Amino acid sequence: MFYSKASVALLSLLSGTSAFSLPYLNYTTVPGFFLQDEAATNATTFDYTAVNFGLLNRTYPTDKLFDLHRKKSQWQRFSAYVESLNLLSGPLKQYKVLWMGRHGEGYHNAAQTYYGTPAWNCYYSELDGNGTVVWADAHLTPNGVEQAQVANTFWTHEIATQKIQTPQSFYTSPLFRCLATANITFTGLALPKKLPFVPTVKELFREGISGHTCDRRSNKTFIHDSFPTYKIEKGFTEDDELWVALHGETNQDQDIRSRKVLDEVFSVDRNTYISITSHSGEIASLLRVMGHQPFSLNTGAVIPVLMKVSTIFAKEPVTSSQPYTLLSTCATPPPPTAT
Predict the structure, then answer these.
(1) Is 207 a catalytic site residue?
(2) 18 FRET partner, CA 20 to 30 A, in 37, 72, 126, 263?
């Protein structure tokens, strides 16, 4: 949320805090609406297309007014409830529905499966490829394309049968597998004309910076030429200045980065329904920042989250950043041990 100095002073007065406390945004998951919120849900076998994105079959306090004749879909009733939360929440809170989708299978995923995780981590992940396929800034495999097409088909079904509220804003990681997944997933859907699929490429929605070549993005010119309708955020550098060979960021630093990118989005984006196409590690980090229970995603999977964004007038807790750590590597390739 953006506030002028006068707004900060007024809101500080209303909230009973000092006007000299600059506000910060706090993110919390609102549980009880999706199967992915529940500890009993098995993330490994979970299929979002079989269970309405995971939306629980439940009633809402707004049902009596919004669905008097019980003809509305579960998603329509949920959206009416979220709208009521925002209408009644006041100026210091917003409720957001995030759809976080993991990219479809990339050639780096296929290579890790083929070589096995130990050999992949210590040797093959530092290479650009193996002479047959390239996994530096990995592209989607045919299976990965199919997984994104499954998402597109399911969105089409949900729009037609559930009258689901589609994303109003779209964001994506700058890595090619996410750029392509987002394109396949959302192109051709019956979206409102005022809210077309025009995603914003944001640097910090990228995968954990691991030192693996699959996580080194292509340059800005290549991204623009490959996806000319996408918006690229202001300040996006021509070359990847975050990736460092044989070095990676810590989980603590990734969480700092995830909080920063959420701040960048929600300090300016007033929309309620947000799509983020990203990666398993980065989505796990975003979930930690939101206080959501851990929930791993298979390639091509999607997790929706109802999140509360609160403006806090107090000194923001500070987490110290850490230097990149050196990867543990091996000089010669171990024998493949497929996992």
Answers:
(1) yes
(2) 263
- Of the listed 105, 158, 203, 207, which one is catalytic? 207
Using CA atoms, how far apart are residues 12 and 18, in angstroms rounded to an integer? 6
Tokens 């600059």 appear where? 22
Alpha carbon separation from 105 to 80, 143, 198, 267, 273 (Å, rounded)? 35, 6, 23, 32, 25
- Rounded Cα distance between 176 and 296, Å, is 21
pLDDT of res. 20? 55
Q: Whole-prediction pTM value?
A: 0.93
pLDDT along the chain (339 residues), means of 10: 48 51 93 98 98 98 93 98 97 97 98 96 96 98 98 98 98 99 98 98 97 97 98 98 96 97 97 98 98 98 98 92 93 75
Residue 48 exposed, middle or buried by CB count within 10 Å (0-12, 13-18, 19+): buried
103 is catalytic: yes
Q: Which of 103, 139, 279, 292 is catalytic?
A: 103
Q: Which pLDDT belongs to residue 5?
A: 43
Cα–Cα distance list, 160 to 52, 75, 262 (Å): 13, 12, 31
CB contact burial 132-161 (16+ within 10 A = b; e otherwise): eebbbbbbbbeebbebbebbbebbeebbee
Which pLDDT score is estimated for 14? 53
Instruction: Give the three-state DSSP class for 95.
Output: strand
Give the residue ranges of DSSP H helices in 212-273: 220-226, 251-266
Nearest to 308 by CA among 121, 141, 93: 93
Strand partners, 171: 200, 276
Q: What is the model's pLDDT at position 6?
A: 46
Instruction: Report the C-alpha gap between 250 and 128 in whole angstroms.
Output: 23
